[in-house]
Amino acid sequence: MFFFILFYVSEALIYTQAMLSSFYIKALRPYLKALTDCLHESAKYTSRTAAKQHETDQALQEMIDKDGAGSWPPKASHKDSWPTALRPYHDIFLELAPLLPVYKVSVDDAINQSRRIEFRTRLQELLRERVDLPAVESVLSTVENEDPSLLQGHAYNGLFACMGYLRHAFRWGTVPVVKCAQEEKIIDFPSELEIPWAFVCRRYGIKSQGGSIMSNFCCNIDEEGRLVYQVNGSMPKKVSSAEHNFVFSFTETEKRALPIYQHIVQSIISFEQGQNQECAEHLKSVNVHLRKAMRVYYEQVIESKIPRSIFVGYMQGFHGWAAGKVVDGEYTEYDGLSGGHLVLFNLLDCFLGLNTFIDEEKFANYIPASQRRFIASVKKHSFRGQVERAGLSELEAQLDGIVKQLRTFRSAHSKRTSRYLSVESPERMVMTAGASTLESGSKATVNDLVSIVDAGLRKKMKETI
Ligand code: HEM
Questions:
Q1: Which of 450, 221, 429 shows the shortest CA–CA distance to 322?
Q2: What torsion, rounded to 10 degrees, do the Cα atoms 339, 69, 295, 397 define?
Q3: Which of 161, 289, 367, 434 satisfies CB 3.0 to 4.6 Å to 219 for a cystine?
Q4: Ligand 1, closest atom to CA 300?
Q5: 253: CA distance to ligand 1 center in Å?
Q6: What values do phi and psi take at 221, rounded to 5?
Q7: How far, in Å, from the CA of 406 to the mean position of ligand 1?
Q8: Using omega within 30 degrees of 0 as the cis cutoff, is the peptide bond preceding 73 cis?
Q9: pLDDT score recorded for residue 52
């Protein structure tokens, strides 16, 4: 409340300044300006500190600070901001990336396997020649235990992306993904990729052996919005720009989601303070910003931006994983990237009192700890049930608007996904990036995949009520 009073008083002072200028009473203006600035700052500070006391706001701030390096979507810097020992990784990926994609993919396993071996051998050679592993281990250990400033948040994010791309490059060895690579379920990574990955997993609080939406997409964008690590940079423009559009459709959605997070937090705070009118205003803003965020999907995931003919081969496959490890005699498989790992959709489900698409185990494998904490804090403070029980119709209407938008997205997403996945790719077994290969492996058809994925996505859509 105090924040609003300060805000309106300072707004009134701005108006008074303007009036005074028109009356040529200029002498008073500097004093009024100083007072206005002071009140504005004070209003900002009051809003921050008051809201900061709330668990959800603390969790949002922590997510932005820790994973986002001070902004959202996360800020990332690559190579120059890293300690010298880590820089060869960046150069090695850029140097070898052109060897990954092949324009006309073979269906001959022997040819594909020899391409993979050639790529992996070259990658291993460069890692051995250029990476000083003890120095890498020492610097990452110093960052972890003594001096985090050696690798600041944005720089660690850049390294996360680089490691993600290098590990996916080693896992597949060629693009499009081919059957013999999918059959390989345990990957013998070189130590140069294994040792730093353990630090990365602890840093972000994740378990997967492969990359995630956070590493491969969010942390792979430079200040100008360009992809830093690109798989198809050497391919014709149609393919390389589709790769950019695909990544952008996720990162831009998260970018537009930040005001949604802020208004969700504020709606929770005002609801808990019994200020229903203010709460309704925040929910209205959630609806406005959600429309802008959803527009990204509707405008990007279309044939002219991401052609169906190249999606499975050049966009999706590389970001899949479908491999794992054996611990105490038990095999655990990890998936690759999935839209189901984005903060926005999990957060909305939790805020609306719905189940999330992915389960606890997947949360722990792929979603960084501070993002999980933010989502969990919003789930804890979800108030939709209370609104319905109390029959608060204005709040209910706004919450229903959010549900409706989410359901419409899910309906469009399931239809478009079926079209993208229904393209035949004879060089490989059917697979999605986020859900690996089907149990029936090489016998499963594209139709099997489409109907299983569609059933899952449509079920989620129907549950969005
Ligand atoms: C060509 C583009 C896309 C295709 C083919 C596609 C495909 C899929 C598939 C197959 C799944 C099921 C689980 C998995 O394997 O990951 C999925 C889940 C999901 N995707 Fe996408 N996706 C695309 C783009 C996007 C974009 C741009 C977004 C959002 C910005 C998105 C958001 C989601 C969400 C939230 C889920 C979890 C299910 C849900 O909550 O309804 N997807 N997607």
A1: 429
A2: 90
A3: 161
A4: 27
A5: 12
A6: -120, 135
A7: 13
A8: yes
A9: 54
Q: Ligand 1, closest atom to CA 461?
A: 41
Task: Give tens-digit pLDDT for 283-309.
Answer: 999 999 999 999 999 999 999 999 999
Peptide bond preceding 236: is omega within 30 degrees of 0, i.e. cis? Answer: no
The DSSP output letter for 221 is B
Residues of the chain predicted below pLDDT 50? 1-28, 30-49, 51
pLDDT at residue number 23: 39
Phi then psi dihedrals of residue 147, to 5 deg: -135, 85
Query: 115 C-alpha vs ligand 1 centroid, how far in Å?
Result: 30
> Is residue 221 within 8 Å of 243, Cβ to Cβ?
no
CA 422 – CA 416 distance, rounded (Å): 10
Domain range 238-321+336-463, CATH architecture = Up-down Bundle (1.20)
What digits encode the pLDDT tens for the residues 74-91?
999 999 999 999 999 999
Q: How far apart are CA 344 and CA 253, in angstroms?
A: 8
Q: Where are the domains of the chain?
A: 2-49, 84-237, 238-321+336-463
Alpha helix positions (H), 301-443: 308-310, 343-351, 360-366, 369-380, 384-390, 393-421
Question: Ligand 1 site: residues with CB under 6 angstroms?
Answer: 249-250, 253, 297, 301, 306, 311, 338-340, 342, 345, 357, 410, 413, 417, 420, 432-435, 453, 457, 460
Handedness of CA 411, 56, 336, 72 (dihedral sign): positive
Supply the pLDDT for residue 438: 75
Which residues, 6 or more positions from 76, have their beta carbon under 8 angstroms from its beta carbon?
Answer: 69, 154, 155, 157, 158, 160, 161, 218, 219, 220, 221, 222, 228
Contact 436, 415 (CB under 8 A): no
CB 136 within 8 A of CB 197: no
| CA of residue 465 relative to chain centroid, distance | 25
Please check whether residue 348 is in contact with residue 399, taking contact to mean a CB–CB distance below 8 angstroms. Answer: no
